[in-house]
């Protein structure tokens, strides 16, 4: 017992100072993709040749666009643009309030807005979430679990994962929502008392991710379920999920737009401005 | 004991499809039964369309002692005499064949759906008979005080979905039936039809906590078929990544095991230290699980000298903190009282049912692909196999603890002496037509097998994935029989099998 106590005192606290300070993520961390339209050569239609359903796409007007919900954050995706206008920024902040916000001409997105005043009164200091894994690869879940460990310590924000939808204020969905889990997801959602929230985490929940196109996988949270927070990633870094949840609860800057550079996610001036 | 198939067939050595023996039904059954009775293991058993109406069944056998593989096959129509009665290891594979290929193994003692999906490897001229997914015949025990407990698919924590149906008498579990398939995404058909770049991303997503393991086996099959030789440096980086993945998961699971017996100190330390290991993968590949690193022909990122030195330093801290955590864990009598004698898997069951990985090693079986069918870096650097004999939760926890120590030693050695060279990736050429290859890797849960067959045009004809969890979920059912139901979370955690890896 004493051995443990002395060891504990020596170890000290390992909880991140987030959101007061954002830890610098390593150089190779890819983060949010960005498209620099100024680098599009005249008459280049290279994006039209990109694989359908992926990160790089062409909108109705024939202009290139990015769908962060279909992004797998793999190094090869940056090569989809033959002119080299597509790169990853290293910014971990990507969570948004609606699925269509993730389709963007430059990769910049309006980050998640805080809930309205009445929802904040209910959930702002105590948010209980139920996890529903609906046809995933099992990658998003460990890094959701890690949010409860000492480094991220979700509980200090009043956010906790609970064991029953009856105890929950909302659900967190990971996975493609495949045929085998569709019913279980619906039943769990219906069992959450209103008012309730739905958070979609990971590329699978937003677009089907790597499995899009398989008849045995889904294409993410069905359109008839209202989504309050979308968190891109494959899987999302725990800080990306945490960033999204805190924005939802109004604990970070409201509806902030990125500045689009690599310093944005690195504890620079923005980092000091964020939250308490 | 001699295995069927061409001489010299082994891990990541492709053979001509024409050299795969094709037997009559009875001969096939006898050959597989004889091989397994003689000490061989069933690595994989699957079907692929032979022509418009018929299915070719292929059995891949492993002789661990001689580092050799065997293969045999048979052509079947709509049904065939099941292998399971003589070869119990085949039980789940045959249920899978029934579901994927629409072929009935006659005489199978327990023919039930595996993943509950329409057949996706049916010969083109046959039609599938629809099966109601809700019509699952659960095993039931009837009696005065026998009750039934159902758990899942949505589970209490942040965990993958699966259904557990217990038949219990008071606290004691008489029988546990495990019904999976909820994570089924159609991985094999995707691997068979996607262009290589997307198939690579998919391979990393078969089981999201085993990115490196599956990527390794996938690339191994691809490289063998395209005769692509990786550089020594690339092989070393891959080996290091695989061991880092093993470390992260073993450390995390020991923490979770501690959490399940409410031993907070170890749970807290290990939960954090796991993250420290993942942060090494994040440094290396830009992703906490190593996505983007393993690629056909080598690796996508280098591990330069500075990074290797930094990793060695951090690993020193990691292992010191880990030892503190497990010291408290194994030194606590109340914890050991929970772990010892709980969830015993007898060695005989392991042999009979073909269990792999730490599950088998905790019951005394010396099964480890790094030792038995070494590839890449493991041909030059050996990691001693960790064995326990008790087969209980304590044994599995101890095996994983020893594996952490051995992996750290291995990493410290390799990182100090990575082979020199600039070339990280050799561009693979086209796949050789008309071949079969088996690529094995020792993932942190056990043996991962990717079996690939190419057609006469050099396209992928069949890509079979067997995750270690496919072998080992049955071990949980074995462990729970006669165990109090309150020990279920602990037992489940002591195996920590993959739902997604099983379900594909």
Give an overview in words.
- The complex is a heterodimer of chains A (about 280) and B (about 500).
- Chain A is an alpha/beta fold.
- Chain A folds into 2 domains: about 35-90; about 115-255, 3-Layer(aba) Sandwich (Rossmann fold), CATH 3.40.50.
- Chain A has helices at about 1-10, 115-125, 140-145, 180-190, 205, 240-250, 270-275, and strands at about 35, 55-60, 65, 85-90, 105, 125-135, 160, 170-175, 195-200, 230.
- Chain A has a 5-stranded parallel sheet. In chain A, strands 2-3-5 form a 3-stranded antiparallel sheet, with no helix packed on it. In chain A, strands 1-4 form a two-stranded antiparallel sheet.
- The longest helix of chain A has 12 residues, at about 180-190.
- Chain B is α+β, with helices and mostly antiparallel strands and about 500 residues long.
- Chain B has 2 domains: about 15-105, Beta Polymerase, domain 2, CATH 3.30.460.80; about 185-504, Cytochrome-c3 Hydrogenase, chain B (Orthogonal Bundle).
- Chain B is globular, with a radius of gyration of 22 Å.
- The mean pLDDT of chain B is about 95.
- At the A-B interface, α1, β6, α3 and α4 of A face α3, α4, α7, α8 and α16 of B.
Structural class of chain A: alpha/beta
**What pattern of helices and strands is seen along the backbone of chain A?**
HEEEEEHEHEEHEHEHH
What distance lies between the first and last C-alpha atoms of chain B, to the nearest angstrom? 33 Å
CATH structural fold name of the largest domain in chain B: Cytochrome-c3 Hydrogenase, chain B
Spans of chain A of 5+ residues with little confidence (pLDDT < 50)? 254-276
